[in-house]
Fold this protein.
Amino acid sequence: MELSGSQMVVEALAKENISVVFGYPGGAIMNVYDEIYKQKYFQHILTRHEQAAIHAADGYARSSGDVGVAFVTSGPGFTNAVTGLATAYMDSVPLVVISGQVPISVIGTDAFQEIDAVGISRPCVKHNYLVKDVKDLPRILKEAFFIARSGRPGPVHIDIPKDVTAQNAKFNYPDTIKMQTYKPTYKGNGRQINKAVEAIANSKRPVLYIGGGAINSNASDEVREFAKITGIPAVETLMARGVMGHKNPLLLGMLGMHGCYSANMAMSEADIMIAFGPRFDDRVTGKLNEFAKHAKIIHIDIDPSSIGKIVDVDFPIVGDLKNVVESMIPLAKEKINAEKYKSWRDLLNRYDEIHPLGYKDSDKVLKPQWIIEKTGEMLGDNAFITTDVGQHQMWAAQFYPFSFPRQFITSGGLGTMGFGLPAAIGVKRAFPEKISINFTGDGSILMNVQELMTAVEMNIPVINIILNNKFLGMVRQWQTFFYDKRYSSTDIQKQPNFVKLVESFGGVGFKVKTKNEFNVALKDAIDSKKVAFIDVDIDRFENVLPMVPAGGTLYNMMLEYKE
Amino acid sequence: MENTRRVLSVVVINEEAVLSRISGLFAGRGYNIDSLTVAPVPNTNFSRLTIVTNGNKRVLEQIVKQLHKLIPVYKVIESGEFAEQEMALVKIPLNENFSGLDVMLKAYNGTIASSGENFIVVMVADDAKRIDNFLKAIKKFNPIDMVRSGSVALDV
């Protein structure tokens, strides 16, 4: 059967069981959009900016575990998408992003809306393609989906010149694919796994350091079981929130720069660290030569380059986390006695009692932490939580009671402001029956606020809770701590009327100044089934605490801020 | 950690932009390239690159792993012995006294590659260190211009 390049794209998405795509049309991608118009396999959601199309596909992918798909045109369409690609790449999110390109005959002539797209995307994608011959397109599409979802997942970018989208060729779409040069390792080395479990059995103060790999590998059940059998206390990174579940007695909490005291002390005093798919980010480790310096390190990761990148590892295990932990469980049952670590657990629990995660509530002004806790109390596991980037993101990570993996959707590695609203749209599209909450700030929300139109048009009711301190709060906090309170370009008291703003798009808005108003607003927002802003005035000078200052040591946290 | 020199032989699928993936990887992650040569492997769809780099132990390990991570990379040969050769061309004015040149060329697997009205071009092929030496020694003939190729290496 002969198909045009554009038809091939549509048919390939159908074969990959794609039910929704996000995008924005333009000259070079028009042939593809014409075929999207004619087909019935999937829904196309028009965002109002290309960056948001990628974030929406990203939110869809992170929450569902499926590949997210987005379309953009050449030139500015593509360059707008780059932040989205980089965001997904840093957090290992499977995407296939297809961009239009000027016709092959004019590539290299600085034609209208021409840019070297694959040259730009190369460092922020897992792989990319410039399609020079329509005959290669079926294979490239198949490879793109395979690469995006296998191994360590990531975004794949396909750049298709306009003439290629119009040319015809035979369409053979293979069901399975084998690539000569790309073969991820899924099964861990048995001998190495044995040695690792042996080392844990001989340890006195073990700790589970759980990273985003546990989510990507869908290993939450196995990780929980391993923890239960062994009685080993666990800490989660920002990307791993929800893996253990907030009710789990073995979970100490999040670690790192804004982690809780007991979690950071567990890392600092452990004699062995069992790293389940984290990547030793600098926001986690603090000063490297003091990081977990008494601990032997077991590191399990599907990406060999992740192991030994930051710290020397005693027991490297390359493999899929789910697969590896599955094979560790029977060995652990045989060799490890959970009783042995009781005094270690008691010590860590005592740390938690001495310095629990908390905040001083107030009658006079709303505290952001209270808003997060209250939302958690009201919605719990009925909601997916998306965030933007800044103080509100850390408060959400600290205070929301996450109970299942993929419940918390946040830009961790790249830290992209403007991620929250479009990502929340993707999440809600993947799980229409769940509530999609975006915790955001008065800074972040304006970075992709045009997506209110997308959400209203497509009837995707996401609820944005704006923790409004009239500051670019996280930078303000650093200026308070480290720059002698010189608030350079962070005091943003000039603001839109957020209630009127969302109403003008066709959503509903609530201005909140008291606890009672918040309770009512959140209920009303959910009942309205409309896109909502809840604009909450919070304490302008609240800080995210505790804190390990950049380059500081985990065991030396700033627990409170003293003037 | 101390920096050491490392020769890598990298077999890649000979496709568009593969060289930019590799050079971009080195540039983006701040790795050094001392020299890089590339050519297709006859009768296959592969190309072979020889990269001479330097870095500490962790960096060198990362370079190998990051290269493996690139989709079109088939094989990275890093360990063991390499037969390594580099080439240099040197243009020397004809008005020089050439006494001793012949012996020098012999010592460095050299010959006269080309000649013109006013100059000769000599070529030598040897390992990188000896090419360094040769280029120092040849200075006494007041060379007009010179070029070296970068290493090619084969694991043995």
Summary: Residues 57-69 of chain B form the longest helix (13 residues). The radius of gyration of chain B is 18 Å. Residues 36 and 139 of chain B are 25 Å apart (CA to CA). Chain B has four helices and nine strands.
